[in-house]
Amino acid sequence: MYSSVKLGIKFIRYWFSAENGKGHGVHSPFVFDFISKVLNDEGEYYCYNSIEQLREDLLKNTTLLELEDFGAGSRMHASYKRRINEIALSSLKPRKFARLLFRMVNYYQPDSVLELGTSLGITTAYLASADEQKPVTTMEGAKAVAALAGNNFKRLGLKNVSIIEGNFDYRLPQFIKTAAKVDFVYVDGNHRKEPTLKYFELLLEKIHDNSIIVFDDVHWSSEMEAAWDLIKAHSRVTLSIDLFFVGIVFFRPEQKIKQDFVIRF
Ligand SMILES: C[S@@+](CC[C@H](N)C(=O)[O-])C[C@H]1O[C@@H](n2cnc3c(N)ncnc32)[C@H](O)[C@@H]1O
Predict the structure, then answer these.
(1) Domain 4-44+93-262 fold
(2) I need a surface site. Which of 71, 86, 114, 237 has the fewest CB within 10 A?
(3) What is the pLDDT of residues 209-258, one digit of tens each?
(4) DSSP-derived secondary structure for the chain
(5) How confident is the model at residue 67 (pLDDT cuts 50, 70, 90)?
(6) What residues does each domain of the chain span?
(7) Is the Cβ atom of 188 under 6 angstroms away from ligand 1?
(8) What pLDDT is recorded for position 123?
(9) 142 in ligand 1 pocket by Cβ < 6 Å?
């Protein structure tokens, strides 16, 4: 992973070279819609407070959890035992991006959601709250973490979440084999080039024209940047949106000429 200084410099470069985030000068109606109705939607949705209250409680919880190490995990820790508040501080997507995931599911209304990387369940909760009739499957390799996430879903009253425990490397192929299709996927774990590309290839087997895949931390390391470049360039991808801390790909055939957007968020 890049040092904080290098990442900071990259972020500054992104900020000054990106589209201004207001949609001015964006000629794609689909992307203009994304900017104006999803990215910049400042509405306060019903679930926001209860999920953030849960995050607050996790940030105060000093209980130690036994963790399995899956490689490229956190920027701050590599030990096998971590406190819940340390995980909550370093591994979870900040509110701004977690809420963006909620708004994307709320707006695009995918039939189902798949998440790789549950951790304590914060982004899962946002993804699942957008439509409690739509199934959300989330995968997590660390047993104790998955168990805690399960309790968190109960606390939030979320009944549409299924947790698949185990390594993505074998859980995802099993899932893909039986899934009829994948509609919306958030890939937030194992941030290395080869695994990320392998997960992408597997997901491609079941994507359709309206599928959306969100990759986390696409500028986190040179490996992730290399993976992101290959994903954007893939022939099935017709549109990509780079928000620096996440990269989103679409497969819409209506997008006749492939376009890559970098948008300030
Ligand atoms: C960044 S955290 C997910 C954070 C969560 N999406 C959020 O923002 O609320 C990544 C999680 O993926 C899990 N993970 C990483 N690599 C994995 C693998 N190969 N198989 C299963 N789980 C893995 C880690 O245990 C960790 O809990």
Answers:
(1) Rossmann fold (3.40.50)
(2) 71
(3) 999 999 999 999 999 999 999 999 999 999 999 999 999 999 999 988 99
(4) ---HHHHHHHHHHHHHHSB-SS-TT---HHHHHIIIIIIT-----TTHHHHHHHHHHHHH---EEE----SS--SS---SEEEHHHHHHHTSPPHHHHHHHHHHHHHH--S-EEEE--TTSHHHHHHHHS-TTS-EEEEES-HHHHHHHHHHHHHTT--SEEEEES-HHHHHHHHHHH-S---EEEE-S--SHHHHHHHHHHHHTT--TT-EEEEE-TTSSHHHHHHHHHHHHSTT--EEEE-SSEEEEE--TT--S-EEEEB--
(5) confident
(6) 4-44+93-262
(7) yes
(8) 98
(9) yes
